[in-house]
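Lab notebook, bench 4. The sequencing result for the construct came back, and we need a structural model before the next group meeting so we can plan mutations. Quick request posted to the team channel:

Model the 3D structure of this chain.
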Amino acid sequence: MGGVTTDWREHAPTRRARPPQVRGAVARPRLLALLAGARVVTVVAPAGYGKTTTLAAHLPDLGRAAWLTLDVDDADPQVLAAGLAVAVAGLPGGEGPGTLLDAGATPRRVAARVADVLEGAGALLVLDEAQHLAGPLTEGVLRELLGGRVALLSRTPLATPDLTRLEAGGDLTRLSAPDLAFTPAELAELLAAQGVTADGAEVRLAHAVTEGWPIAARFLAQAAAQGRVRLASLADLDGGEAQLGTLFAYLAQEVLGPLDPSLRALLTRGSVFEELTPDLLADVLAADHVDGREAGALLDALARGGTFLTRTGDTYRAHPLLRAHLRGLLTPREAREVAARGAAYFERTGRPRRALAAHLQAGNAARAAELLAQNGGRWLAQGRVTLVDRSLARLPAGAWTPALHALAGDALRLASRYGEALAAYAQADPLARALGEAQVALDTVQPDHAWAALDRAEALTADGATRAQVGRMRAENHLNAGELGRALALAPDLALGARYALRSGQLAQALTLALHAARGEAGGARAAQNHREGLLLAAFLHTVLGEPQDAARRAREGLAEGERLESRFVRSLALARLGHAEATAERLDAARAAYTDALALALDVVPRLQVEPRMGLAYLEARTGNAALAGAHEAQALAHTGGDHYVTGLTRLTAALGRLHGGDAAGAVPGLRAAQAIFRTCGDTFGTGAAALALYAAGGEHTEAAAEAVTRFPFLLTRRSLLSPAPTRAARAALLARLGAALPEAQAALLPVARALGYPHLPRPEEVPGVDVRVTVLGRVAVTRGGQGAREWGRARARDLLALLAVHEGGLPREAAQEALFPDTDPQVGERNFRVTLHALGQVLEEGVVSGTFLERGDWLRLRPGPDLTVDLQEARAWLQAAPGTPGRADALLTLPDRVADSDLEAVQAEAERYALHLPEALTAEADHARRAGQPDLAARLAERALALDPAFEAAARTLMRVHHARANPAAAARTYAALRAALADLGLTPLPETDALHRALTGQ
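Done. Here's the predicted structure in token form:
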């Protein structure tokens, strides 16, 4: 990026570098604490939530500060750098950025110097309207700027890797609309600041009416202060739960009355327009003898009132509900006349969107249609689908042209209303119709539906640009069909895209590209990209790569974006991808629910959208043995693939894996063979390898291809992938052992996979049980295999021997174990009994594996935990000994069983005593950590669990008392103390002096 020219001051109007003047704002210590507690803070909320007001009002409390209100021009890094230089010029060292700009420095370097100035001065920089930084051009500038103390105020979500990194490091605080909304207590303070006396019931009612929305709360407070609204009578507005719109209209009628007639007239006549500027009003209201200076003064007067207009730069905006009310005060003729003058002004000043809206209000449909036809395509490219759709809806039938029907088709297609889009294209000219129909097929990934339309478009095409467009569409259709070679022959650059990388088996590259595409998807005006959504492609790739948590997170983010875009297509696809994530995580009920919801949404959009949810349901039904229902889902999915051979292969593979995972290996083989053939034809190396590995798992065929798949795509065995040949780690380990034994020459290549699964060497088949074996001695002594109870024990003492070995983590001598189990028995009899007992334990532990795999025999006895054998007591000891605050420790301690299983063995009894002592201690230490970390709810749960285990444990009681005090609940603290006294009294004891002193300090008793 080049340096900034020396005329940079032309891009930096000083008025945007001054914080707005705020009047009548109430102190909000709750928000102040959040704002002051982080180096970087983002405040994201719609208009009217008081972002600017909150920051501007609290600037004096936040120390040294600089301010810059951004606008659309700041998407240019050079303009942004100029504004930053002006904003910090008044800080110590603040002349440095301007000096760099004079020397032609790059915007990034200027931003880095701004960050240095902020750090040196200990100052905060507030960037208002920060949604203008969402573009890629300013990403580097923002990255440098975030080295300082910065507050970003935005109407749309801010999601960049740099902000994510800061959040992970604890340097970022995010505030949103719920944080900015007034609490009942803050609303009471706002009313009091306006001189309004309100009791608790009135405050609660006022809060229910406004829902804490700051702009509505301020309207209400002002109206109540003027005596035009009685808080006690708010219930009369709408049965006690007045909607905001009703309240607004009521207040508008009451508040407009006292306005100066010139202000009232200006506000009323200006309500025709979405935004007001002095020049607009001077031009439109010239007949009223209002010049630019007078219009600016009147607008400023209204903005200073704090309730009528919100100012952004040189533009003023009334609340939409107030605009609607004011427009209703104009006669239709007057509104049309004002709108017509406004339309002429907007056309002269080159603002076609505003001119279109004004022409529509003025009733000039013909000119509105011309403007819409000229600009609609550009607006759609900017994601302004709603603008085009609403503008078209307001045009009378007589104003429509073939070009507008084509535009309507584009808008409907981008809104995922494909049937309506095709109907609109049918009324366009032949070329537009062909292109539109082909684009619908591309958007819905139905290549068979696109070929005829593309042929027609090509035959009708005369100019080179349109011919190139058709060629590009044909290339994408080949990609959609799974014909990668033909796609690249027409458009080689398709190889650089995420979808090509996925369909050719380059999964890591595909994920990188998908995540890059997903950046900046959330928030902002845009059209839904449907199957091209980066977030949802990333979600699918995460499941294939065996990363279900990341997959679920991306899918839910995509679902939220689909809801924001009001796109049934995106929502359905997001739910299908969420289903894949849940299935990969073995949460099968959640997967079924997601697939079912996805299918319900898909039914009304396009048949192609049914494929993934039906594919997922086919897997689930096959896995649970419902062969008929699985086959029906698979058949319907295949019927709707529309010629997409890649998805056909994916559907066959997934459904077959359901049969394989459900135990029907023979039934899985035909589908796996079909999938392998399809993927091979498509050129997808991953799909071909996954099918080959599953075929080996099902029947032992394709050994070399299976080994190659494991070495190229090790995650198929090391993790639970959506397309893994077995759902459990143990089953995948057993498959690896089989593969290594069948192909000795591949063992060196397979060793890294074995190590990733936790084995020091490539295991032999007889060393791997194929199921997870778990020993439990907490609560009860048991052995489970694959979550199911093990075989009969054979000898009762075998359980005792298992408990003995579990508490001796390092093992113990054979003689000691025999003496512990048979203490008063003749040595020879004891030896015989012990040998039988040891054999019985081995039968239970080592079913399916060679003797000695899990149980070391000989003069020294011990359990051999590893990837296939776990011991709950050893895991519990690790959590008990971990430092407070260790990730996962709190949840683990809360779920640990209460005690070690009962036993008559002295060593087990001693371990039970230690466990009973250490668990409450660990819970209390963790509770103290949670309390200091500002997690009172977690701290209370931990301390309460400790007291449930030992009601007389004073340390836990003291922690719980402190938590109740922090929650402003002295009564609960007193109850905790009373319960402790009672528990101690049962033992003949009384509380320690420090406990008594704490009780007095916290309760005043």
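Residues 900 and 913 are 8 Å apart (CA to CA).
Will bring this to the meeting.
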